[in-house]
DNA sequence: TGAGTTTGTTCAATGTCGGCACAAACTGAG
DNA sequence: CTCAGTTTGTGCCGACATTGAACAAACTCA
């Protein structure tokens, strides 16, 4: 108990320890390469706002970590010495991405840059128990991982439900027949570590994750205020990406846009108790019934609705139904524009098809019902990424590495 | 043209120059003192996450800049050596804050910590020309500044209109009889520099600025996702403060909540062409007419509505009118909660009075129409600051100093 | 082939911040 | 009143990321 031999450990320790620091610009640099905004070392230098010396050191360190490759030379055609190309390492670590939706589940390995390295085929769900389903998809992903022999840096899961923060419970997995409040994050974390993976695991809403993926690798690139609205098989989801970060609100429930009123004169009854909600007015079932079709059991509602739009759009009834949905969707988007003032809107699922069917009509409705200035003429684009929820699940799994490559990979 | 004598200046210069850097933690430290979150040097140390040595150096530098005072000792009652108190300098710089609303204008000098150092009485508007009005309020502020003899660090103006970014035009100054699109920022900047003040000048919407002020010094302290809704004399405004920063959207038009539909069964006609908008259903005029009163010309509508609530709330007709407005307001807030998922809501203007009249009713409506989890039980509080728009105008004027004290004050 | 341009590399200098030791200022018990 | 215990302020040194500048390398164009 001699003070000299046992100096107090709790003296004036700062919150940031040495280990988790690493080189300061390492994270931002990796994010620039990851999102394709730094194709060469020269633009990395200017994007980071540092000297060439620092950028060189940072790039070298990322290469030493096995995350990127620095490829010298390459005839650029421009004047001066060609800059080294920065590319994502094709033999680097991957993350395990998983998605569950009302029609099935899928697992994949995703590298930096949003590249899907390997994927399982879509599997059907045979059990309504969330622990079973999540266990299956994690197992499928772990099998992919074993086959690939690559290092795993994290795991992410996309579910078709709002996920409450900070608990990680699925609050409305209505179309999965899961119990309300199912602890999906806890289940996923358990299954991931149960599969022998000692990596951080994240769970999020599928539309949120899709928006994140589109922001980094798809139609949302470069946007600072990105609004994403999508309908999958049933119901409508929304997401907002602000300054490159997903905005999920204080408890993960932001952008639950399904119950915006878009049919003031009544409309279809919604399970929320109200009528004319975006959820029931613009989803695949709404299109089918508006077109006078009775949905069959052989295909998913989304597939049937898509088929209707692509093959029978000339039909007067189908076209009328589509225009009705477009008007309703436009009303909902205009309401969101007045509140959020995004600089870009991207649409996924059936909404994507509605946009491509008649982009002018949708844009006109949004502009007409938005109030002032340029907010009404916000660009509306279609999602461009395949499996964007899956890639989004990978994005959140990558995030710790993007924030602090040295710290996340040293463990 | 000798390369040796004239070295290229554009070599590998980084974007951050030496002058605008200053000590790294200087800005965060000043913000902590400014918002009252660092009353002593000890908590400054822990809040910044640095060592005592660094915190001491930072505090000393802020004192050398004349922004704060470091007062040694002060019997704290607790164990150990009492920590030096950090207080805002009462002889330091001030900013010029100005506000224009439909009833008049006011100028003030505001120090750090949101302290109003001096203020003009409320002045009536005699001219509908924005340049005249803004000129008058700047002149009044400049006179205050001359009398005080203190240094001016910036200027801010609050206007009752959406302000489009990046131009700074007032898009809906309807109740001021200003032309739509009046270049208020340009006018304000011109008048400020015309008054001999070589300081940055900022212009914003009054509710936005009020929300910022409440976040830093009032009912919004500590909130990470703050929603503010307020009605002044006519119309309803909203604001969102995310992580301490005002969220104005991509072109300054976010949170234009006035045209949310809150009366689905028709309701009053709004100038936007629709019916049942929040704007016309919950403003002072709506209360007066719902209570069967014809507004008189002697007082402002807000004052008359406030008077009605405070003196005649026992009246069946008045109470019924108030409850109708509360239900409509609750419907609007619930819609915003579903989209934004704030962790706190604060209400200003007449909405504040409606909340205090029957808080339970309002909270019940919001909870009933919000969808899941805790998002519906979000705390709803009344604004607490006097002149919060004025203090908010000061906040944006202070912002450059808070971001980089050394750079902002060295010029 | 050489001038001009742009980029990568090396290295010393700089400034910030962490870690440590010690002094200072208070409380509370005997 | 004194002394142990606790918490905070200060001075000093070292680690280290980053700058700045000089120089080499790689390409285009005349």
Q: List how many beta strands of chain A DSSP finds.
A: 14
Biggest interface: chains and residue counts?
A-B, 49 and 48 residues
Q: Outline the biggest β-sheet of chain A.
A: 5 strands, mixed
In terms of quaternary structure, the protein is: homodimer
Number of domains of chain A: 3
Structural class by SSE content of chain A:
alpha/beta
Strand arrangement in the largest pleated sheet of chain A: 5-4-3-6-9
What is the succession of H and E elements of chain A? Answer: HHHEEEEEHEEEHEHEEEHHHHEHHEHH
CATH fold group of the largest domain in chain A: Nucleotidyltransferase, domain 5
| Share of residues in strands of chain A | 15-25%
First and last CA, distance of chain A: 34 Å
**Overall pLDDT metric of chain A:** 91
Spans of at least 5 consecutive residues with low confidence of chain A = 1-21
In DSSP terms (H or I, runs of 4 or more residues), the helix count of chain A works out at 14
The CATH H-level homologous superfamily of the largest domain in chain A: ATPase, nucleotide binding domain
The dominant shape of chain A is: globular
CATH class of the largest domain in chain A: Alpha Beta
Radius of gyration of chain A equals 23 Å
Structure description:
Two copies of one chain form a homodimer. Chain A is an alpha/beta fold and 411 residues long. Chain A has three domains: 63 residues, Orthogonal Bundle (Arc Repressor Mutant, subunit A); 139 residues, Nucleotidyltransferase, domain 5 (2-Layer Sandwich); 163 residues, ATPase, nucleotide binding domain (Nucleotidyltransferase, domain 5), CATH 3.30.420. Chain A has 14 helices and 14 strands. Chain A has a five-stranded mixed beta sheet, sandwiched between helices. The first copy, chain A, has a five-stranded mixed beta sheet with strand order 12-11-10-13-14. Chain A has a two-stranded antiparallel ribbon with strand order 1-2. In chain A, β4 and β5 form a beta hairpin. In chain A, α8 runs antiparallel to α10. Chain A is globular and about 65 Å long. The first copy, chain A, starts with 25 loop residues before the first helix and ends with a helix. The N terminus of chain A is likely disordered. Chain A binds a DNA duplex (30 and 30 nucleotides) through α2 and α3.
